[in-house]
Amino acid sequence: MKKLGPDDIKIRSYIYSLIDTARAKAILDIGCGDGYDLIQIAKHTTKHVRLVGIDVSEEKIEDARAAITDDTRFSFLLHDVTSGLPFKNEGFSVIFSKDLLECITNKGELIKEVYRILCPNGQVVFAHWDWDSQVIDGSDKNLVRKIVHTFGDWQQKWMSGCDPWMGRRLWRTFNSTGLFNGEMYTYVLTNTEFRPPYYGYERIKDFEALVNKNMITKEEYDTFYQDILNLSKNREYFYAITMYIYIGRKI
Ligand SMILES: C[S@@+](CC[C@H](N)C(=O)[O-])C[C@H]1O[C@@H](n2cnc3c(N)ncnc32)[C@H](O)[C@@H]1O
Asked: Methyltransferase domain: from which residue to which, for each copy (predicted)?
């Protein structure tokens, strides 16, 4: 299981605090990755809860299964959720998902499936970064905008779609279905130090991959990166990103 930095842990703890774990009998995590969230969420539940994770990546599902050893409350399923959710009607009291929807093209179909397998008055908790609105101070606004937006538009090979506005679009994605009553919550993560293990540092390092993909030039990245180093030396570096969370109840 990948070791998370303190910013990532803090943001996830905030999301877990919004989950109605006390009364949950069965919790599903869609796009569960290596199972980290489900394992943390389990710490706030009763001993009798059923915890199910589903993901299309064989490697992630293997990691998740290895992490839970012989805890029989958990099951992790290898499945592509674009072909539906392989569960009976109304079987889950909480359906959780973080940073999955951006890569799903037919979101409406998935949301209908979520509705079908959620029990009456069950809770949906869908969280997503809004990648396109990452805030980075820099000397050249156009260059910062170009790099942030190019990163957001980068459809990586494990994604069947790509929407860097998914955070801000959670509201309409759910509300347009008329199937849930919900509210939006936000968490703005800010960093003023440019060094590991801060979240902004890790993301700015990630941007370098755009050079290898020929999406920005090496010169553009180097100019941007040097500017960030200079700002950081003068204690002027600033990074922020917003996590959006839709919390809804089945109508
Ligand atoms: C950005 S990762 C988020 C993982 C985890 N929820 C987290 O926040 O740490 C997106 C996850 O969704 C999974 N995923 C993408 N498309 C999927 C699909 N069609 N069906 C099931 N899982 C999918 C990926 O394999 C990956 O584990």
From this structure: 25-136
Cβ–Cβ under 8 Å, residues 36 and 71: no
The answer, yes or no, to whether any atom of ligand 1 lies below 6 A from the CB of 114, is no
Tell me, in angstroms, the distance from the centre of ligand 1 to residue 121's CA: 26
34 found inside a domain: yes
Ligand 1 atom closest to residue 57's alpha carbon, by position in its atom list = 25
Measured CA to CA, the distance from residue 25 to residue 92 in angstroms comes to 7
Q: What residues make up the domain containing 15?
A: 6-250
**pLDDT tens track for 117-175:** 999 999 999 999 999 999 999 999 999 999 999 999 999 888 888 999 999 999 999 99
User: Residue 65 belongs to a domain with what CATH number?
Assistant: 3.40.50.150
Q: Is 11 in the pocket of ligand 1 (CB under 6 A)?
A: no
190 domain residue, yes or no: yes
